[in-house]
Every structure is written in structure tokens, then in C-alpha cells.
Fold these 2 entries.
Entry 1:
Amino acid sequence: MIFALCAAVGFSVSGGSLAQDAPADKEAAAKAAKAAKVKFRWGKSLKSAQKQSEETGLPIVLLFTGTSWCGYCVKLEKEVLSKKEFKQGMDGVAIGVKLIRQFGFQQVQGGQDI
């Protein structure tokens, strides 16, 4: 499951609920245990986030941003995304991938253009 945040038009989340269902079997229980230990950070690539999502069962949160030129993006980063309360609140809830808009959406710190 992938969620998207678009800083230019504010938060827009789509794709379902962040609520987790109770694990029904041992595999689901193992995934839930792994998910609970995941510390939220903005990932380096969509591919690694997808792998981690498969291992933990956590949804992926995509952030489409233009932090160097978009005023709303800068404000969102400064007032929400950089706060420890935000990151702590996202621990064990989701896996983040930040896509920065410059000359096309590129994944942060390497990866391939998407």
C-alpha cells in the first residue's frame, strides 16, 4: 500500500487506513513484530522501501516535494516533517520515501529517476 503526501497542495493521503488489523497467523505476527521496531526516516529509494514494506507489512508514504524552491514545501519541512514528534509518531506506522522535484522527480540520495 502506498500513501502520497504532496507538499505543494498540502497533505493529501490516499489509499486506505493506517490502522493495522490484528495478526491472524504466525507470519502476520512476525511482520507485526518487525513493523513495531521500524524507526521512521525518509528512505533513499522506492525499491528499498517496497522491500521493507513487504518484510514488515507497513504502508509506504511518498512525499513529493520541492524543498529548494517551493515555499509550501519549505514550510511543511520546517514546521512538521523535521519535528521529532512527527518522526516518533510515524515509528512503526509507515515507511517514508521523499521525492524531490527539481528537473523531474528524483529519489533522495541516489536511486533512479521515476
Note: Helices lie at 26-36, 46-56, 71-81, 84-90.
Entry 2:
Amino acid sequence: MAKLQDWRSHYNLINSMMAIDMVSIPITLEQLITAVQQLQPEERAEVARALILVDLRSDLRALIQELYAQPSVDEITDDNIMAEIKAVRQQSHQT
């Protein structure tokens, strides 16, 4: 149950981050790194978490797009599953 709560917390954080209007400030990567290095450890950790969540969100979006791009799979029945299990067991006994 704790993992579900953690997931909900991360999900809510992502949604709250996405609801914020984006601000554009011209800054170099070096300036950004310098600014982050000046933050307190807790604030640096928050920046790190935010970056990870952005990456996870884009990875999740790519995965969803990939799954939707695949052709639909025929419905698998219990009989199909049992036949596959029997075939694998037979194969493992033969080797």
C-alpha cells in the first residue's frame, strides 16, 4: 500500500508541475549548473527529482505511443494459456 501512496504522490507532483505556466529565461547550461550548485542540498534534491520525473514522463509517453502503434492482439483464452504452458513444459523436459 505504501508503494501505491508513493506513486500517487509522484503522479500528483507531475500533474502539479504540468499545470504551472512555463517561463522562458535565456541562460546557458553553465549558468544553470552554477545556480543549482548554489542551492541547499534539499533544494538540489528537489531539482534532481523534478528532472527525473520529466524524463520518466517522456519515457512513459513514448511507451504508450509504442503500445498504441502495435497491431491489436487477439484475445487470449485460458485454453491458449494452458496450451502454451504445456508446450513449454514439454520442451523443457526434452532438453
Note: The two ends are 42 Å apart (CA to CA).
